[in-house]
Amino acid sequence: MGPAGSLWQHIPSDSEETGEDEDASPSAEPETTLDACSQWRNNVGFWLLGLCNNFAYVVMLSAAHDILSHQKVPAGNGTEPTPPSVPANASRYDCNAISTGAVLLADILPTLLIKFSAPFCIHLLPYGLRVIICVITAWGSFLVVAFSTCTVQSLAGVVLASISSGLGEITFLALTSFFDSAVVSAWSSGTGGAGLLGALSYLGLTEAGLSPQHTLLLMTIVPVIMQASYSFVLAPPPGAPRCGWGKRPQKSLRSPSSTQQPLLENKATLQNKAQSPQLSLQEKGQVVKGLLKYLIPLAVVYFAEYFINQGLFELLYFHKAPFTHAQQYRWYQMLYQAGVFVSRSSATCIRIRHIWLLAVLQCLNMVFLSVAVSKMFLPSIYIVFALVLYEGLLGGAGYVNTFHCISEKSKPEHREFAMGVACIADTLGISLSGAVAIPIHNHFCRLP
Length: 448
Hints:
The protein is an all-alpha fold. It contains 15 helices and 2 strands.
């Protein structure tokens, strides 16, 4: 057995297996404690990776109203009410010339392209290289948007955030297949935390008097935290890709020399994790077909909620509320992300296996708020605040429960591919909602 304080236990070679029981030592208990410490590190690492991966994506959506205004905010950064202005088209709605759905499309279409292609070719890139690409593009997105002088340049920065988020999600979800299943909950909670902290930090810093430009520049520290979390916090088990440049483990567990394994896992489990065979195109098609019962409801959940977020939020403007229009939009985004964070962190307490039920409830939410925009019958913004929080709860629950079901139901040799390909569903739903949100926005803004 290894020295005291080692996290890994020596595996006897085949010639030593008959004496396995005699070699057992009472010192196993401290090592079990250390193995629990290693699991804690992995949970923290995946939580931070989820947080950092979605942070830029969330901030770009929270800043959508400002981006379409070329980062120009009223005096006091929108903290003081400004006299209402009459839109040029005399519409009852206070509309930007371009729908915030345009920012959503810039923030999601590159992600969609990555997720559609990546499950079939991403294995050619080492995990370490993928993470570096994510870090560089996220860092660049903050800088490009912060120093942009026009909407087109801002949208280019949003595209960089989308590339980082999309590549990161498919990379880290696939990486969870090599770890204990608890890291799926940690990742989901982290992505929910990104929503809350991203929207709240943008809201809080701009409310405190910082310009959107300075706020975005402060956030360039987040991609650095992502790289540090991947390189230094994770404690990969044997069979997992290391935190360097290797694509995947190549050594068999039954090599002539001794190897290492976590104390609490048996040899058969490690073989499943380590081998991770390459699937044929036909096998991949069968896996995708089996996932449709989870993917279709998840896509519907995300279509409905992002139609609300980017198609209706800007139109749900209350002239008599004690907030400017920009402030109201930021509060909607923050409350939505708060609901997402709570529900994505709830998997250890509440499990929902019927994802279609969440899809139905979210569609009802979308229809109600669409009617509210059309008829303008809601008397108070605080009713919308409650509905937006509820919307976030449904969306977060759909995400975390879908990936838990896929992780549990997939065969070990299919799990890495299944976890990667499943994240296409939410992105597809978001992309469709952005495409629909733009004409709906234009329709309402043309109304007298």
